[in-house]
Every structure is written in C-alpha cells, then in structure tokens.
Design brief:
Involved in the biosynthesis of isoprenoids. Catalyzes the 1,3-allylic rearrangement of the homoallylic substrate isopentenyl (IPP) to its allylic isomer, dimethylallyl diphosphate (DMAPP). The protein has 16 helices and 12 strands. The strands form 3 sheets. Strands 4-5-6-7-8-9-10-11 form an 8-stranded parallel beta barrel, surrounded by 8 helices. It has a two-stranded antiparallel ribbon with strand order 1-12. The protein has a two-stranded antiparallel ribbon with strand order 2-3.
Length: 356
C-alpha cells in the first residue's frame, strides 16, 4: 500500500525512535570480529602526532567518523538532532539527518524544525540530507533540491530501504526505475550524492551499477546493527498485522555483513562509508583498512543525544581515542597509512568471501 498521509510519516518517525530505544532490534554479525589488524610492535611514530583528518566529498573532516542518518520528522526528535549536530560542529565530524520526506510532505513548522535545527546549531559542520530512492520519481530533482536547501546540506543521501518497506504495513514497494532516477539526481543535483543502504549492505554488483551511475559516495550500511525489518515487525505487531510481523521477523537477519560489504563496495568505488553495527573506533580502524573512507555509527549516539550535546561529544572523543590507538599500534601516522595497514580475514567472513 502506498502511503500518502504526511501525518502517518510523522507518527512513524516517532515509532522508530521509541522501538530502537526500547526493543531488541540488534542483529550482530558485522564480520568485524573476523578482521584482525596486524600489530606493529615498533610503530616508530608519536601518538600525539597522529593525523586523523580525512577528505570527504570535497571537505575535510577532523576524523573519519560519521553520525549516521537517524532521525527527524517529528517534533519529539528536534532536541536529538540539535544535540547531534552541535556535537558534529564541535568535533569536526560529519552528520546525516533522517529521511526528510516528512517535512517535504507536511508543511508543519514543527516537523521542518526537526531538520533545520541541525544547520542552525552547526553552521560549519558537514551535514547531509536524506530521501528515499522510492520517492525520487515523485519529487524529482527539484524536490530533492528542496531537501538540500532545508538544511543547507553539503551532500544528499539517497537511501535504499526496500526490505524495510516490504516489512512495513504502509510500505512503498515500487522499486522500478530507481537506478535511472538516482543517475539523474547524481548528474543534476547541486551537491554530491551518497547512496546508502539501511542495514542490509551493498554488494559489489550493486556498487558497480551505482558507481557507473555517477554516485559520489556509497554508504554500505550492512548487516550487524539495527535491523529495520525487525523494527517494522514490532510496529506491525502493535497494529495486529500478523503477516507483516511475520515477514519482518523472518528477514531480521537478512543481508551482507558490514565487513564483507565494505570490502566489496570499496573495490568498486573510492569513497565508501562503512556503517551497520559499527560500535567502536577499532571497528572504524578495521573498516578503513578494508578500504572505507570513514565509518558511521547511529544507535550508539541515540542515548547520548537524549542527554545532550556534551554526552555526544564525549562519545565521539571515546571513539576517536580508540581509532587513534588502532592507528598507533599499526604504525599508521595518517588515515592514508591506515588504509594500507595489513590485516587477516578469519572465520565465517573468510568463508563468505571465498564463496563470493
């Protein structure tokens, strides 16, 4: 069923945050546990001189850390986005907002404010917008530009969430002509385009198609973190929708592990964000060694965002300390050095890659 009610979109955003905070919707199995960086006992660098800055879509980030697209679209989420964006401003990392469909469809100022607050408190941060691939035909390039203008975005993410839509009682499951629409937006939009999955990963085949379409960056968002089909199973259960509940539950472990997807996508594109169950600076260090430009986290920031900006900043600093330590003990003075760090792939991830 195609959703047309803007208020329904707004209410769904509030449901999503509540379920992610309160229910068991984690899958595990990112594959990072099977990635072992080779220890350098003689790093021959000064920890204090390690340079974590990285070029990202024409801008410089202080570290290869991204606060992933999480929320917006409900007045209750304004404070969360304010804290996240203020922390991104203070620490010099990137941040994405959640799907802006709610604000494009609903003229309510409270809905729009949940997004616009990000640029208000983060005038210099790298912020990117967000819209679904399934909505591109409806909005066109002009509509996507409206989303860019809403937050004065430095880039625009187009999310691929078709499994979530299939598990959603009101989901939009018409996936026809999305690649052509993505190619048009990538060619005509005023800012770089990121295509991101939402918890199920991007294969090398899909990464190649997106690279050929002119997409500027791929965010793999692989299996191992929040399962959005699992989130929709909870929503369906609350609505007494047995069939969608069963679909969401059945597919909660579906997808390419994040480590696998990072390796596959980075073999096809030179700008990849590894996300999906990334939970530490060590995970980011492993992702960069696998070929990623940066690593993204979502759920770990949700609780701190509820406490305020300083709690988010503290988490960023914890992640950065772990990342720098990973760089130090691999002898990596720069992020570029870390991309060349030696690693070994073990266990199920090795088997997965061998079968691929």
């Amino acid at each position: 069923m195609r959703e047309t009610d803007g208020n329904q979109t707004v209410d769904r955003k509030d449901d999503h945050i509540r379920i992610v905070e309160e229910e068991d919707v984690e899958t595990g199995g990112t594959g990072f546990q099977d990635i072992r960086l080779i220890h350098e006992a003689l790093p021959e660098i000064d920890y204090d001189d390690i340079e974590t800055s990285v070029e990202f879509l024409g801008e410089e980030l202080s570290a290869p850390i991204v606060i992933e697209s999480m929320t917006g679209g409900h007045p209750n989420t304004t404070a969360l986005n304010r804290a996240l964006a203020a922390a991104a401003e203070q620490t010099g990392i990137a941040m994405g907002v959640g799907s802006q469909r709610a604000a494009l469809d609903d003229p309510d100022d409270g809905v729009a404010e949940s997004y616009t607050v990000t640029r208000e408190v983060a005038p210099n941060a790298f912020l990117y917008g967000n819209i679904g691939a399934a909505q591109l035909t409806e909005y066109g390039v002009d509509g996507v530009e409206r989303a860019v203008e809403m937050i004065d975005a430095d880039a625009m993410a187009i999310h691929l969430n078709f499994l979530q839509e299939a598990a959603q009682p009101e989901g939009d499951v018409d996936a026809r002509n999305c690649l052509a629409a993505i190619e048009t937006v990538a060619d005509e939009l005023s800012v770089p385009v990121i295509v991101k999955e939402t918890g199920n990963g991007i294969s090398r085949e899909t990464a190649t198609r997106l690279a050929d379409a002119g997409v500027d960056c791929l965010d793999v968002a692989g299996k191992g973190g929040t399962t959005w089909s699992g989130v929709e199973a909870h929503r369906a259960a609350a609505a007494n929708d047995r069939r969608h509940e069963k679909v969401g539950t059945r597919f909660r472990n579906w997808g390419l592990p994040t480590a696998v997807s990072t390796l596959e996508a980075s073999g096809c594109h030179d700008c990849v964000v590894a996300s999906g169950g990334v939970r530490s600076g060590l995970d980011i260090a492993k992702a960069v060694a696998l070929g990623a430009r940066a690593g993204g986290l979502a759920k770990p920031f949700l609780g701190p965002a509820g406490q305020g900006t300083e709690a988010v900043v503290e988490l960023v600093e914890d992640i950065l300390a772990e990342l720098k330590t990973g760089m130090f003990v691999t002898g990596s003075a720069t992020v570029g050095d870390l991309q060349d760090a030696e690693y070994v792939v073990l266990g199920r991830t090795e088997t997965f890659l061998d079968q691929r």
